Amino acid sequence: MALVDDKDIRGEDDVWRRVPSSPSQLTYEHDERRWRPSSAAFEDSGPDDPMSALLAREDTPQRALQGRWSGWFLAALGAEMLRADGQGIARDPTEEDPSHVLVFGRKTRKIQRRWAKSARWIVPPDLPAPP
Prior knowledge:
- It contains three helices and eight strands.
- It is an alpha+beta fold.
C-alpha cells in the first residue's frame, strides 16, 4: 500500500511521538540542564515500517500514554517542519490509537538530530540529571 500525504493534516498541527524511558531514546543536555529525545527516538520502525506518531489535535496526553505506554514521555513536532524535511504524514487509525499517523520519507541522521533538538515536550521526563 502506497502512503499518501494527508493534506487535511495542516502545517500548524502537532504530531506527537511517544518516547520510552530508555538510555538510547533520551539525551541529557548538560549546558541546558534538560533531557531531550535522542535522534534514535525519531527512527522508522523498520525498512518498510514508517515512524509511528499521533495527531495531537485528535488526542490527549492522558489517553496517548495509558496502558502499555504508561511511563513513557510525549514529544511534539510540527507537521510543517516534518514536511519541510521531505516527510509525508498519512492517517493510520487503529483500535488502540484512533489518532495514529505514519510519518514516511527518508530520515537521515541530520534530520533526526534536528527533530531531536527541536522537539517540544508535552509530557517531559521527570528524571534526575546524570552525574
